[in-house]
Design goal:
The protein is an alpha/beta fold. The protein contains 25 helices and 19 strands.
């Protein structure tokens, strides 16, 4: 796991001192993603930077990595992520005559492109099972490929320039180059406000995100996008028992693959079905006793108040599963003071590169990952299980399912109308933007051809599942990646294995909900691994602090901000609406958003163009 960045300029030699300084500045922004090593490669119009978090082949995996072969032009790779099937690919490539100098998966990716990407790079990328984002430069073709994994687990951004492109794992790497403007316009603010992931999910003007399952080809002729993977209909014909068995087989194989590491590995445990199942599987297949970590807040279990999709505290279930599976368990317990610490909030903001964060959820995740990093370099986490298996209550509520918009609604629109300046809100055109993005997403949904294809409810649930996997999940994966890599922790997500995603997505909703509960398939496939209480536990979302002291500190800070009319954020706000927020509202989300927006405008030195 690492951070990458680079610069292609077809009308300039980048080997001079000025360009080298620019590349060094870009690479330095990736230091948290790669604390173990750094490297650069510059030749003619191409400059690549890399910061390394060493996980596999600690000595031999240095980057950028160049593949030299007798009589053939080199290939240069800056890679971040993990290719879980690299050992099988290495054997296949060796049988075809390829010679390897390291035991790293990075070198395998290089040889895969040499062998299978001769005519079409999509062929080579399709061989990879993993989470990855990488840049491949071919000096002979003078061509750059920017490649992102199928689900978008690892981030990758690019910024077209007059004569080429800038790219990086995070926007901050691109912004470190003087060619990139720091501009927030209406389009960027719209994307930040709405609770779904637009395919071009960036907030800085002129910057783009490489879409999941896509390749961006950059040459002197311009920039071209290619699709190498997308969700399709499988025409699923397996019955429920067969489907359950195959889900378990895929999980067994995926967990075993993702346990491979040359550094300490652990799991993140919430006591819910998703994290408990992967922790139990990891404990079963690991050669060493698995460490597990859970998040808690001071006094949370003792003073717990049920809320939306949060009926029970995690603590008792965490302890029961840890004892049942025999893990070496640690609770990371946080206080309101830690969550409101200015340094923590600044680190969270700069990890996300967004005008808005999720407040205490983001801060607590950052602190959790920072604590885990003291013990482990790699962690397994349960993201995607809810989106894949139908875990949220939204999947099971007809009012949300049949609503003519994203099934989880959009808290951004109505609240924005209250708290933003009326003229700004009118310019943003949020309702029409929301509808446009919803219609665009629906147009992508593959037609249902398997059992139940004539059933209107099955067709609608296919749409709902697609929306969750392609418009909600990417935001959660981005949050996980940014906040974990800010501490140099690699978090792997077994439920995002593309084979599992493809199989379960193609499964009829009647199978996914065969016992009338959420996540029926996952529960049935892993019930033998878990204590009965965990098997039967109702879905509970990631916890949010319930300490009144936290809300008091939040309100105090916002009061000071609203009363100061000279702040950067003041022109964007409805002061009347914000005073109402302070006096009569418990809309904690927007309290957090306004405070974060102020910090973003100040710290990132952005120009506003509305």
């Amino acid at each position: 796991m690492c951070g990458i960045c680079g610069w292609i300029d077809f009308d300039r030699d980048l080997e001079g001192p000025e360009a080298r300084r620019e590349l060094a500045a870009m690479t330095a922004t990736m230091a948290f993603r790669g604390p173990d090593d750094q490297g650069t490669w510059i030749n003619g119009p191409a400059a690549l930077g890399h910061r390394r978090l060493a996980v596999i082949d600690l000595q031999g995996g240095r980057q950028p990595m160049t593949l030299h072969e007798d009589g053939r032009s080199p290939l240069v790779l800056a890679y971040t992520g993990e290719t879980y099937n690299y050992r099988e690919l290495r054997q296949r490539l060796a049988a075809l005559g390829h010679r390897f100098e390291t035991s790293s998966d990075t070198e395998v990716v290089l040889h895969a492109h040499r062998e299978w990407g001769k005519r079409d790079p999509c062929t080579a990328v399709s061989e990879l099972n993993g989470m990855f984002a990488y840049a491949l430069w071919d000096p002979a073709k003078r061509e750059l490929l920017l490649i992102r994994d199928r689900l978008g687990i690892k981030p990758l951004y690019y910024y077209p320039t007059k004569h080429g492109v800038l790219f990086g794992s995070e926007p901050k790497a691109i912004l470190a180059n003087g060619l990139a403007e720091r501009v927030l316009d209406a389009a960027g603010l719209r994307r930040a406000l709405c609770s779904f992931a637009e395919p071009n999910n960036t907030v800085f003007r002129g910057m783009h995100e490489v879409r999941p399952g896509h390749i961006v080809r950059v040459s002197r002729d311009g920039i071209q996008q290619m699709t190498y993977w997308q969700l399709t209909d499988s025409g699923h014909t397996d019955d429920v028992p067969t489907t359950i068995r195959h889900v378990r087989e895929l999980l067994d194989d995926t967990i075993q693959r993702q346990l491979i590491a040359d550094v300490p590995l652990c799991t993140l445990l919430s006591g819910g079905l998703d994290s408990s199942a992967l922790t139990a599987l990891a404990a079963r297949f690991s050669a060493q006793r698995i460490r597990s970590f859970a998040l808690d807040f001071v006094g949370y279990t003792e003073n717990f108040t049920p809320g939306f999709m949060c009926a029970t505290p995690d603590g008792p279930y965490v302890q029961e599963l840890a004892n049942f599976a025999g893990t070496d368990h640690t609770d990371i317990t946080l206080s309101a003071d830690e969550l409101m610490d200015r340094g923590v909030r600044a680190s969270t903001l700069h990890a996300r590169d967004l005008p808005f964060t999720a407040g205490d959820i983001d801060s607590s995740l950052y602190l959790l990952f920072r604590a885990v990093r003291r013990y482990s370099t790699v962690a397994l986490s349960g993201e995607a299980a809810d989106e894949l298996f139908g875990g949220y209550s939204w999947f099971h509520d007809p009012a949300y399912v049949q609503s003519d918009t994203f099934p989880w609604g959009n808290v951004g629109v109505d609240s924005a109308r209250q708290y933003l300046d009326p003229l700004l809100f009118e310019k943003l055109e949020l309702p029409s933007y929301l509808d446009e993005q919803y219609r665009s997403a629906l147009a992508e949904v593959p037609a249902l051809t398997g059992p139940g294809s004539s059933d209107p409810h099955e067709r609608r649930m296919r749409e709902v599942c697609y929306l969750f996997l392609t418009r909600r999940l990417p935001r959660l994966l981005d949050r996980k990646d940014r906040l974990s890599m800010a501490s140099g922790l690699e978090v792997r997500v077994p439920y995002c294995d593309h084979r599992l995603i493809e199989y379960v997505f193609g499964t009829p909703w009647a199978h996914k909900n065969f016992d009338g509960r959420e996540k029926s398939l996952l529960r049935a496939a892993t019930a033998d691994l878990l204590p009965p209480s965990v098997v039967q536990r109702v879905k509970s979302v990631y916890p949010s602090i319930q300490d009144p002291a936290y809300y008091k500190m939040l309100r105090t800070q916002l009061t000071a901000l609203v009363n100061d009319g000279n702040t950067a954020v003041a022109p964007l706000l409805s002061i009347r609406g914000c005073r109402g927020l302070l006096n009569a509202s418990d809309d904690v989300i927007w309290m957090e958003r306004i405070l974060t927006l102020q910090d973003f405008l100040t710290d990132y030195n952005v120009s506003l163009r509305f």
